[in-house]
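Input record, target 12 of the design panel.
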Protein backbone atom coordinates (compact mmCIF):
# COMPACT_ATOMS: atom_id res chain seq x y z
CA UNK A 1 0.00 0.00 0.00
CA UNK A 2 2.80 2.40 0.93
CA UNK A 3 4.75 1.61 -2.23
CA UNK A 4 1.77 2.54 -4.40
CA UNK A 5 1.70 6.02 -2.80
CA UNK A 6 5.39 6.67 -3.43
CA UNK A 7 6.41 7.58 -7.00
CA UNK A 8 8.60 5.02 -8.75
CA UNK A 9 11.52 7.42 -9.21
CA UNK A 10 11.58 8.02 -5.42
CA UNK A 11 11.60 4.29 -4.68
CA UNK A 12 14.57 3.86 -7.00
CA UNK A 13 16.56 6.81 -5.62
CA UNK A 14 15.47 6.66 -1.99
CA UNK A 15 19.06 6.51 -0.69
CA UNK A 16 20.00 9.66 -2.57
CA UNK A 17 16.99 11.58 -1.28
CA UNK A 18 17.48 10.26 2.24
CA UNK A 19 21.11 11.41 2.26
CA UNK A 20 19.94 14.84 1.05
CA UNK A 21 17.50 15.05 3.94
CA UNK A 22 20.21 14.04 6.45
CA UNK A 23 22.59 16.65 4.97
CA UNK A 24 19.96 19.36 5.25
CA UNK A 25 19.14 18.31 8.82
CA UNK A 26 22.80 18.43 9.92
CA UNK A 27 23.42 21.83 8.31
CA UNK A 28 20.23 23.17 9.85
CA UNK A 29 21.27 21.90 13.29
CA UNK A 30 24.82 23.30 13.08
CA UNK A 31 23.52 26.68 11.96
CA UNK A 32 20.93 26.98 14.75
CA UNK A 33 22.40 25.12 17.70
CA UNK A 34 24.37 28.08 19.11
CA UNK A 35 21.71 30.71 18.47
CA UNK A 36 19.47 32.02 21.18
CA UNK A 37 15.75 31.97 20.60
CA UNK A 38 14.97 35.22 18.86
CA UNK A 39 14.52 36.98 15.56
CA UNK A 40 17.65 35.62 13.87
CA UNK A 41 16.86 32.06 15.01
CA UNK A 42 13.33 32.06 13.61
CA UNK A 43 14.46 33.86 10.45
CA UNK A 44 17.09 31.21 9.68
CA UNK A 45 14.78 28.36 10.71
CA UNK A 46 12.09 29.67 8.35
CA UNK A 47 14.67 29.92 5.55
CA UNK A 48 15.79 26.32 6.12
CA UNK A 49 12.21 25.05 6.14
CA UNK A 50 11.28 26.94 2.97
CA UNK A 51 14.44 25.62 1.30
CA UNK A 52 13.58 22.00 2.08
CA UNK A 53 9.93 22.41 1.09
CA UNK A 54 11.08 23.69 -2.33
CA UNK A 55 13.68 20.92 -2.58
CA UNK A 56 11.17 18.20 -1.69
CA UNK A 57 8.53 19.66 -4.03
CA UNK A 58 10.93 19.42 -6.97
CA UNK A 59 12.10 15.92 -6.01
CA UNK A 60 8.56 14.53 -5.71
CA UNK A 61 7.67 15.75 -9.20
CA UNK A 62 7.92 12.95 -11.75
CA UNK A 63 8.46 15.33 -14.68
CA UNK A 64 10.68 18.24 -13.68
CA UNK A 65 12.07 19.12 -17.09
CA UNK A 66 10.77 22.35 -18.56
CA UNK A 67 8.44 23.21 -15.66
CA UNK A 68 8.32 26.95 -14.96
CA UNK A 69 7.10 26.36 -11.40
CA UNK A 70 10.05 24.10 -10.59
CA UNK A 71 12.51 26.62 -12.00
CA UNK A 72 10.94 29.33 -9.85
CA UNK A 73 11.26 27.09 -6.79
CA UNK A 74 14.89 26.38 -7.72
CA UNK A 75 15.56 30.11 -7.96
CA UNK A 76 13.99 30.59 -4.53
CA UNK A 77 16.26 27.86 -3.16
CA UNK A 78 19.33 29.61 -4.55
CA UNK A 79 18.30 32.96 -3.03
CA UNK A 80 17.67 31.31 0.35
CA UNK A 81 21.06 29.55 0.37
CA UNK A 82 22.90 32.75 -0.54
CA UNK A 83 20.96 34.51 2.22
CA UNK A 84 21.93 31.79 4.73
CA UNK A 85 25.57 32.03 3.59
CA UNK A 86 25.55 35.76 4.29
CA UNK A 87 24.40 35.03 7.89
CA UNK A 88 26.53 31.91 8.35
CA UNK A 89 29.27 32.14 11.01
CA UNK A 90 30.47 28.52 10.64
CA UNK A 91 30.79 28.26 6.85
CA UNK A 92 28.49 25.23 6.58
CA UNK A 93 25.39 26.64 4.83
CA UNK A 94 27.16 26.53 1.45
CA UNK A 95 26.91 22.72 1.55
CA UNK A 96 23.27 23.19 0.56
CA UNK A 97 24.51 24.36 -2.85
CA UNK A 98 25.49 20.74 -3.53
CA UNK A 99 21.86 19.69 -2.99
CA UNK A 100 20.82 22.31 -5.52
CA UNK A 101 23.40 20.98 -7.99
CA UNK A 102 21.83 17.51 -7.81
CA UNK A 103 18.56 18.95 -9.16
CA UNK A 104 20.08 20.54 -12.25
CA UNK A 105 20.68 17.54 -14.59
CA UNK A 106 16.96 16.89 -15.11
CA UNK A 107 15.99 20.57 -15.40
CA UNK A 108 18.75 22.00 -17.62
CA UNK A 109 21.24 21.01 -20.28
CA UNK A 110 24.84 20.51 -19.19
CA UNK A 111 25.89 23.91 -20.57
CA UNK A 112 23.02 25.72 -18.84
CA UNK A 113 23.70 23.92 -15.54
CA UNK A 114 27.44 24.73 -15.58
CA UNK A 115 26.69 28.40 -16.31
CA UNK A 116 24.21 28.46 -13.44
CA UNK A 117 26.72 26.86 -11.05
CA UNK A 118 29.38 29.42 -12.09
CA UNK A 119 26.90 32.25 -11.51
CA UNK A 120 26.03 30.90 -8.06
CA UNK A 121 29.74 30.52 -7.25
CA UNK A 122 30.46 34.13 -8.25
CA UNK A 123 27.63 35.33 -6.00
CA UNK A 124 29.00 33.11 -3.22
CA UNK A 125 32.46 34.65 -3.67
CA UNK A 126 31.18 38.23 -3.43
CA UNK A 127 29.21 37.39 -0.28
CA UNK A 128 32.25 35.72 1.34
CA UNK A 129 34.76 38.35 0.14
CA UNK A 130 34.84 40.07 3.52
CA UNK A 131 36.66 37.07 5.07
CA UNK A 132 39.77 37.77 2.99
CA UNK A 133 40.51 37.33 -0.70
CA UNK A 134 42.64 34.18 -0.55
CA UNK A 135 40.64 32.29 2.08
CA UNK A 136 37.35 33.22 0.37
CA UNK A 137 38.70 32.11 -3.01
CA UNK A 138 39.81 28.66 -1.86
CA UNK A 139 36.63 28.08 0.17
CA UNK A 140 34.44 29.05 -2.77
CA UNK A 141 36.49 26.87 -5.15
CA UNK A 142 36.02 23.87 -2.84
CA UNK A 143 32.25 24.34 -2.81
CA UNK A 144 32.29 24.94 -6.57
CA UNK A 145 34.02 21.60 -7.18
CA UNK A 146 31.60 19.87 -4.81
CA UNK A 147 28.72 21.25 -6.88
CA UNK A 148 30.35 20.05 -10.09
CA UNK A 149 30.89 16.62 -8.52
CA UNK A 150 27.27 16.37 -7.33
CA UNK A 151 25.96 17.54 -10.70
CA UNK A 152 28.19 15.12 -12.64
CA UNK A 153 27.24 12.13 -10.47
CA UNK A 154 23.49 12.74 -10.89
CA UNK A 155 23.87 13.55 -14.58
CA UNK A 156 25.68 10.26 -15.16
CA UNK A 157 22.99 8.31 -13.31
CA UNK A 158 20.27 10.18 -15.22
CA UNK A 159 22.01 9.51 -18.55
CA UNK A 160 22.35 5.80 -17.79
CA UNK A 161 18.69 5.56 -16.77
CA UNK A 162 17.64 7.32 -19.96
CA UNK A 163 19.86 5.01 -22.04
CA UNK A 164 18.23 1.97 -20.40
CA UNK A 165 14.76 3.32 -21.16
CA UNK A 166 15.70 3.98 -24.78
CA UNK A 167 17.22 0.50 -25.07
CA UNK A 168 14.08 -1.07 -23.61
CA UNK A 169 11.93 0.87 -26.08
CA UNK A 170 14.16 -0.18 -28.98
CA UNK A 171 13.96 -3.82 -27.87
CA UNK A 172 10.17 -3.59 -27.77
CA UNK A 173 10.15 -2.04 -31.23
CA UNK A 174 12.43 -4.80 -32.53
CA UNK A 175 10.09 -7.42 -31.08
CA UNK A 176 7.15 -5.75 -32.79
CA UNK A 177 9.02 -5.51 -36.09
CA UNK A 178 10.14 -9.15 -35.88
CA UNK A 179 6.55 -10.22 -35.29
CA UNK A 180 5.37 -8.21 -38.27
CA UNK A 181 8.11 -9.57 -40.55
CA UNK A 182 7.41 -13.14 -39.45
CA UNK A 183 3.69 -12.74 -39.99
CA UNK A 184 4.20 -10.99 -43.33
CA UNK A 185 6.62 -13.68 -44.56
CA UNK A 186 4.14 -16.44 -43.74
CA UNK A 187 1.33 -14.62 -45.53
CA UNK A 188 3.44 -13.95 -48.61
CA UNK A 189 4.58 -17.56 -48.81
CA UNK A 190 1.04 -18.92 -48.47
CA UNK A 191 -0.18 -16.45 -51.08
CA UNK A 192 2.61 -17.51 -53.45
CA UNK A 193 1.77 -21.20 -53.02
CA UNK A 194 -1.94 -20.59 -53.59
CA UNK A 195 -1.20 -18.61 -56.76
CA UNK A 196 1.12 -21.33 -58.05
CA UNK A 197 -1.51 -23.97 -57.42
CA UNK A 198 -4.19 -21.92 -59.14
CA UNK A 199 -2.12 -20.70 -62.11
CA UNK A 200 -0.02 -23.78 -62.84
CA UNK A 201 -1.78 -26.95 -61.68
CA UNK A 202 -5.27 -25.51 -61.97
CA UNK A 203 -4.82 -24.40 -65.59
CA UNK A 204 -3.16 -27.68 -66.58
CA UNK A 205 -5.93 -29.76 -65.03
CA UNK A 206 -8.48 -27.61 -66.85
CA UNK A 207 -6.66 -28.21 -70.13
CA UNK A 208 -6.44 -31.95 -69.36
CA UNK A 209 -10.18 -32.12 -68.73
CA UNK A 210 -10.94 -30.42 -72.05
CA UNK A 211 -8.62 -32.74 -73.92
CA UNK A 212 -10.18 -35.81 -72.33
CA UNK A 213 -13.65 -34.50 -73.19
CA UNK A 214 -12.65 -34.11 -76.82
CA UNK A 215 -10.91 -37.50 -76.92
CA UNK A 216 -13.97 -39.24 -75.48
CA UNK A 217 -15.94 -38.39 -78.62
CA UNK A 218 -13.24 -39.66 -81.03
CA UNK A 219 -12.19 -43.02 -79.60
CA UNK A 220 -13.93 -46.38 -80.10
CA UNK A 221 -16.73 -47.28 -77.78
CA UNK A 222 -14.66 -49.76 -75.74
CA UNK A 223 -12.25 -46.97 -74.64
CA UNK A 224 -14.92 -44.43 -73.69
CA UNK A 225 -15.53 -45.78 -70.14
CA UNK A 226 -11.81 -45.50 -69.39
CA UNK A 227 -11.66 -41.93 -70.70
CA UNK A 228 -14.78 -41.08 -68.73
CA UNK A 229 -13.11 -42.34 -65.54
CA UNK A 230 -9.97 -40.29 -66.30
CA UNK A 231 -12.10 -37.25 -67.08
CA UNK A 232 -13.94 -37.61 -63.78
CA UNK A 233 -10.61 -38.00 -61.96
CA UNK A 234 -9.23 -34.82 -63.59
CA UNK A 235 -12.39 -32.90 -62.65
CA UNK A 236 -12.12 -34.18 -59.06
CA UNK A 237 -8.46 -33.11 -58.86
CA UNK A 238 -9.35 -29.68 -60.26
CA UNK A 239 -12.11 -29.31 -57.67
CA UNK A 240 -9.71 -30.31 -54.86
CA UNK A 241 -7.07 -27.83 -56.05
CA UNK A 242 -9.61 -25.00 -56.17
CA UNK A 243 -10.81 -25.94 -52.69
CA UNK A 244 -7.26 -25.84 -51.29
CA UNK A 245 -6.59 -22.50 -52.98
CA UNK A 246 -9.85 -21.08 -51.59
CA UNK A 247 -9.02 -22.28 -48.07
CA UNK A 248 -5.53 -20.78 -48.23
CA UNK A 249 -6.87 -17.46 -49.44
CA UNK A 250 -9.63 -17.50 -46.85
CA UNK A 251 -6.96 -17.86 -44.16
CA UNK A 252 -5.34 -14.73 -45.58
CA UNK A 253 -8.44 -12.84 -44.47
CA UNK A 254 -6.80 -12.36 -41.11
CA UNK A 255 -8.55 -10.74 -38.19
CA UNK A 256 -7.08 -7.31 -37.48
CA UNK A 257 -7.82 -7.41 -33.74
CA UNK A 258 -6.31 -10.88 -33.31
CA UNK A 259 -3.18 -9.73 -35.13
CA UNK A 260 -2.91 -6.67 -32.88
CA UNK A 261 -3.38 -8.80 -29.77
CA UNK A 262 -0.66 -11.15 -30.97
CA UNK A 263 1.61 -8.17 -31.54
CA UNK A 264 0.96 -6.71 -28.08
CA UNK A 265 1.54 -10.11 -26.48
CA UNK A 266 5.09 -10.03 -27.85
CA UNK A 267 5.81 -6.75 -26.01
CA UNK A 268 6.69 -6.85 -22.29
CA UNK A 269 4.36 -5.03 -19.87
CA UNK A 270 2.05 -3.82 -22.65
CA UNK A 271 -1.72 -4.15 -22.79
CA UNK A 272 -4.33 -3.49 -25.49
CA UNK A 273 -7.96 -2.68 -24.70
CA UNK A 274 -10.41 -2.85 -27.63
CA UNK A 275 -13.44 -0.61 -27.09
CA UNK A 276 -14.92 -1.43 -30.47
CA UNK A 277 -13.46 -3.45 -33.35
CA UNK A 278 -13.75 -2.30 -36.98
CA UNK A 279 -15.58 -4.33 -39.62
CA UNK A 280 -13.43 -4.14 -42.75
CA UNK A 281 -14.13 -5.85 -46.07
CA UNK A 282 -10.87 -5.23 -47.91
CA UNK A 283 -7.94 -7.54 -47.18
CA UNK A 284 -5.46 -4.99 -48.57
CA UNK A 285 -6.89 -2.31 -46.28
CA UNK A 286 -6.57 -4.64 -43.27
CA UNK A 287 -2.93 -5.24 -44.11
CA UNK A 288 -2.14 -1.54 -44.48
CA UNK A 289 -4.02 -0.67 -41.28
CA UNK A 290 -2.03 -3.34 -39.45
CA UNK A 291 1.22 -1.74 -40.58
CA UNK A 292 -0.02 1.73 -39.60
CA UNK A 293 -1.18 0.64 -36.15
CA UNK A 294 2.05 -1.31 -35.61
CA UNK A 295 4.07 1.82 -36.40
CA UNK A 296 1.85 3.86 -34.09
CA UNK A 297 2.50 1.38 -31.27
CA UNK A 298 6.25 1.38 -31.95
CA UNK A 299 6.44 5.19 -31.89
CA UNK A 300 4.41 5.34 -28.68
CA UNK A 301 6.81 2.87 -27.07
CA UNK A 302 9.93 4.65 -28.28
CA UNK A 303 8.99 8.31 -27.87
CA UNK A 304 6.20 8.26 -25.31
CA UNK A 305 7.21 5.34 -23.03
CA UNK A 306 3.63 4.06 -23.32
CA UNK A 307 2.46 0.62 -22.18
CA UNK A 308 -1.35 0.92 -22.27
CA UNK A 309 -3.25 1.17 -25.57
CA UNK A 310 -6.95 1.65 -26.31
CA UNK A 311 -8.41 0.92 -29.76
CA UNK A 312 -11.70 2.51 -30.72
CA UNK A 313 -13.41 2.48 -34.12
CA UNK A 314 -16.63 3.46 -35.83
CA UNK A 315 -18.01 2.96 -39.34
CA UNK A 316 -20.45 5.18 -41.18
CA UNK A 317 -21.38 3.80 -44.61
CA UNK A 318 -17.98 2.95 -46.12
CA UNK A 319 -16.00 5.43 -44.01
CA UNK A 320 -14.02 3.99 -41.09
CA UNK A 321 -12.47 5.99 -38.24
CA UNK A 322 -9.94 4.19 -36.03
CA UNK A 323 -8.36 5.78 -32.95
CA UNK A 324 -5.41 4.25 -31.11
CA UNK A 325 -4.81 6.04 -27.79
CA UNK A 326 -1.94 5.49 -25.38
CA UNK A 327 -0.87 6.54 -21.88
CA UNK A 328 2.60 7.76 -22.85
CA UNK A 329 4.19 11.14 -22.40
CA UNK A 330 2.12 14.04 -23.71
CA UNK A 331 3.06 15.41 -27.13
CA UNK A 332 3.27 19.19 -27.32
CA UNK A 333 0.88 20.65 -29.85
CA UNK A 334 2.50 21.95 -33.04
CA UNK A 335 5.83 20.41 -32.02
CA UNK A 336 8.07 19.08 -34.81
CA UNK A 337 7.73 15.54 -33.46
CA UNK A 338 3.98 15.71 -34.02
CA UNK A 339 4.25 16.14 -37.79
CA UNK A 340 7.29 14.21 -38.93
CA UNK A 341 8.02 11.91 -41.84
CA UNK A 342 6.27 9.06 -39.99
CA UNK A 343 2.81 10.53 -40.55
CA UNK A 344 3.67 11.26 -44.17
CA UNK A 345 4.57 7.60 -44.66
CA UNK A 346 1.33 6.46 -43.03
CA UNK A 347 -0.72 8.76 -45.26
CA UNK A 348 1.09 7.38 -48.31
CA UNK A 349 0.21 3.82 -47.28
CA UNK A 350 -3.49 4.68 -47.22
CA UNK A 351 -3.66 6.92 -50.29
CA UNK A 352 -5.48 4.19 -52.27
CA UNK A 353 -8.21 4.20 -49.63
CA UNK A 354 -8.60 8.01 -49.35
CA UNK A 355 -6.88 7.71 -45.98
CA UNK A 356 -5.96 10.48 -43.57
CA UNK A 357 -3.72 10.00 -40.52
CA UNK A 358 -3.31 12.52 -37.70
CA UNK A 359 -1.63 12.60 -34.31
CA UNK A 360 -3.80 14.26 -31.66
CA UNK A 361 -2.13 15.53 -28.47
CA UNK A 362 -3.88 14.97 -25.14
CA UNK A 363 -3.11 15.86 -21.54
CA UNK A 364 -1.68 12.39 -21.07
CA UNK A 365 -0.34 10.57 -24.10
CA UNK A 366 -1.70 11.02 -27.60
CA UNK A 367 -4.12 9.48 -30.09
CA UNK A 368 -3.36 8.20 -33.58
CA UNK A 369 -6.46 8.89 -35.67
CA UNK A 370 -6.95 7.08 -38.99
CA UNK A 371 -9.79 7.83 -41.42
CA UNK A 372 -10.16 5.53 -44.44
CA UNK A 373 -12.74 4.41 -47.00
CA UNK A 374 -13.51 0.70 -47.06
CA UNK A 375 -13.92 -1.25 -50.27
CA UNK A 376 -13.99 -4.81 -51.66
CA UNK A 377 -10.90 -6.46 -53.14
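The sequence produced for target 12 reads:
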Amino acid sequence: MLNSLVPEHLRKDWLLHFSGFITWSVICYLSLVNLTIGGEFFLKLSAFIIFYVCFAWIIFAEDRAGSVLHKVLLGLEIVIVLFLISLDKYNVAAILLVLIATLLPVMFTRKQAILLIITITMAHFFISYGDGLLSSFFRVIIYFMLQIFGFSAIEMAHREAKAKEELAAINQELLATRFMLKSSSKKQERLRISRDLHDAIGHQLTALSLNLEVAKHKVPEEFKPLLQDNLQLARTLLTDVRKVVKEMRDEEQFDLISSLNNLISQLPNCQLTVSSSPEINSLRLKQQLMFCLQEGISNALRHGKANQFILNSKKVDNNIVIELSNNGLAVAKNSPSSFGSGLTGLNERLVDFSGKVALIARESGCTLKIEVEDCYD
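Residues 133-216 form the longest helix (84 residues).
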